[in-house]
Amino acid sequence: MLRILLHTSIVLILTLLTQIGGIAWIIALCFKRRLISFVLAYVALSVAAIWIAPQFGRVALDCSSDGPLQVQSWMYCALNRNYVSPELAEVLHDTALEMDQLHPGTITLVLDANFPFLDGFPLLPHLSHDDGEKADLAFYYADEDGYLKGATRSPIGYFAFEKGATDCEKRWPSLRWDFEFLQPLWHSHIVDNQRMQSVLAILSKDERVSKVFVEPHLIDTLGSSHPKIRFQGCRAARHDDHIHFQL
Question: Which of 22, 70, 135, 240 could disulfide-pair with 15, CB 3.0 to 4.6 Å?
């Protein structure tokens, strides 16, 4: 009974983290060398997902690209969180190209996008990101010498929050984590206001984009008011460490 419970928990956790990891673990249970079998099955399923996902209306963002649009970390690709609808892929590429034209040498970094299969399947810890039509972009950063190409404050682009006023009270349940204990660990880069203003303007004028979520104090600082740019609400995750947008 305990063994069944253990393997059921592993399948559940791997499925929630990667969507296809649970299937890989079930396959691995058929072999003696379980860990090696899991890795091989997971890699095989992940590669197969690239070819199968278009049947579900998703395409994989290129994880090896060195162009103006890049996935911020190998982790997102390894966990199969780099899938989007073809239309969203076009928006991302168009946005990155326009940013590079406005500010030569700019790299636009994608964070969490979506899993390869099934609308409505949750991409934790996000409240949305379940239909291929949402993606997060990392902030653009600079130091005293100027723009930092492809840099983020934290290793995964998230949880390096910019301080600012908020009307949100601490409440439960909520995904509005502060992670104050982590903040001293991050790089001391500053937000590149010029590039942030540009990307918000690009997304706002794109007729394919319906919503852009950024924390209100950053909207005020950047002067980027537009009906599409809005506050995500006090129970959702903070958006002063990344930009969320959706079709």
Answer: 22
